[in-house]
Amino acid sequence: MTVPDTRPTDPAAATPGDTSPGDTEVRQAPEPAETGTDDGGRTEAGDGTGERPVRRWSRWDGVVAAVYLAWALLVTARGWRNPDGRLLGSRPDDQGFNEWMLAYAAHAVRHLENPFFTTAQNAPDGVNLMTNVGMQLPGILLSPVTLLFGAPTAYVLLMTLNLVGTGYAWYHVLSRHVVRSRAAAFVGGLFCAFAPALVSHSNGHPHMTAQWLVPLIGWRVLALARGGRVLRDGLVLGALIAAQFFISVEILFLLALGCLLAALAHLALAPKVALRRAPRLLGGLGVAGALVAVVTAYPLWMQFFGPQHRMGHPGGPDVYALKLGSYVRYATESIAGSPTSAGGWGPNTTEQVSFFGWSLVVVAVAAAWWLRKEVTVRVLTLVAVVCALLSMGTTWTWGTERTTIPAPFALLQHLPVFDAVVVARFGFITTMAVGVLLALALDRVASLARDGDRLPARIAVVAVAAALVPILPTPLPAQGRPAVPDFVTAGTWRDHVAPGRTLVPVPVANMTSVYWGSAALAEFAVPQGYFLAPTSKEDPTGRWGVEPQPTAKLLTLVAEGKRGTDVTPAEVAQARADARYWRADAVALPKHRRQEDLRVVLDALYGPGRQVDDVWLWDVRPFSN
User: Fold this and answer.
1) Helices (H), strands (E): how many in the chain?
2) Beta strands of 360-427 (E only): which ranges?
3) Under DSSP, is residue 522 helix (H, G, I), strand (E, B) or coil?
4) Cβ atoms within 10 Å, residue 83
5) What is the pLDDT of residues 547-563, one digit of tens each?
6) pLDDT digits (tens, 9 = 90+) for 492-515
7) Which SS3 state, helix, strand or coil, does residue 529 take?
8) Comparing C-alpha atoms, which of 201, 436, 470 is closest to residue 360?
9) Which residues make Cβ contacts (< 8 Å) with residue 227, sequence separation at least 6?
């Protein structure tokens, strides 16, 4: 995949409004011109000038960053009103888990503990963090915020910065290396960061929206292919890839797939140029791969062979697949969308990765047709279409109904790594390809305007604006956060639970454990939780959570009013064995509508409890040590 260098070599030739008094054009050393022909005999664009202008930071870059920041704050505004009292978005459990991940990262930094595996959740077996969302690098970078202000504030900050950083990174790469119109680069960055794909995942998936390094990695791959220094540029690329690995392995996989598809498309469309550039690219990738292999060896072992590793994803791939018609409809959080506009067309509110609307699909197709002679555009178009088809899952759909006719992903569903992919997320690759295509098309429109052909340029700008406005994001919803007892938030638990030992909330609910552990910055362990784990020690197939212990099931039935308060000697013995299994120091009962029934049962299981702050507490150390 090659991106033609179309920026001006003469500062005076820049698009009006694209330069400012603060701009400085600095020329680099000459590079050899890259020319070549595709199979149709057309010349591939290359840098025939012998020197390139390099843009430095200007006030226009500051304006772009400010606009992206304002838009990101608009999307996350309801979460900022009261981070400790509200949950941002429509997926509270996902947010709760990711807050816990941030809390544990800060805990790991503070105590120098393993950032890839922990027993602070799902005690005593623990959670393999590499087979879940990872996020070690954002968690470590945000650890001062987490330690000072808490995980909820760090989470909302991360969700906001992800949108800003992703948008600006795309703008930076597009404006410096791909197009000469800053306006075109601005629109490309805006789309790549605020398209339905990233906004929908802002409902609870920071690892999917943290795409700040994606355009930089993509550009370094292209730079290698276009004549970069194999060792130096390979090491730079390797460092970026390793950093992305510790942000989101899933995004790194999608990026690698997108680059592979682009390379294959380039090979098919311009084989002579692709083959000439292959040695440099492969050499640089070899250097990068060697560095990445060294840096990621242990976490990769943990992911595929470490304790609590899992294989595959719960449910079949079509559970998380898109429908073909989803690409011409509007997402829940788009201006043209509504609470029901995406119903039946996507897996849930988080996985609305397509939803471009008819107008944008028409504009994108028109742009691809208009620029069809450019190899880059044809590569982008092929990649976008292939990944859109992969996001359909294993069978085609008719309307919102799934047929039995095999679709492309059926060929890949049993391959390693592909068996764990959330299929809808192939739409991320389509989104990025469309964003670059829009930037290229608008850059050509700006060129028309400079040449005096203003009417077609104005029509094109109006068409693009009309296509983008309906999919612009609206503020994400927010809801109240489940209360965590003062016993936890005030730190009173420290007088009753040793660091690293387990505090058991009653009833033993997955998210209760997560919220309590997060509020205490993972200083004590909790049973169960919210995570992906193997089905059993013998079966590594992925599943959500684990099977509750017998005492957890008993207390849940009492809390739901489905059984009485009488307990048998066998249940007493089992409760004390479970306390030993959990390595628990204390069992805590917060306010609950069936608090009296639960107290009677817990007194029978562990002896008389006592009130401490706003919980009833049972010291179970005599049974667990």
Assistant:
1) 22, 16
2) 395-398, 401-406
3) coil
4) 21
5) 999 999 999 999 999 99
6) 999 999 988 999 999 999 999 999
7) coil
8) 470
9) 31, 32, 34, 280
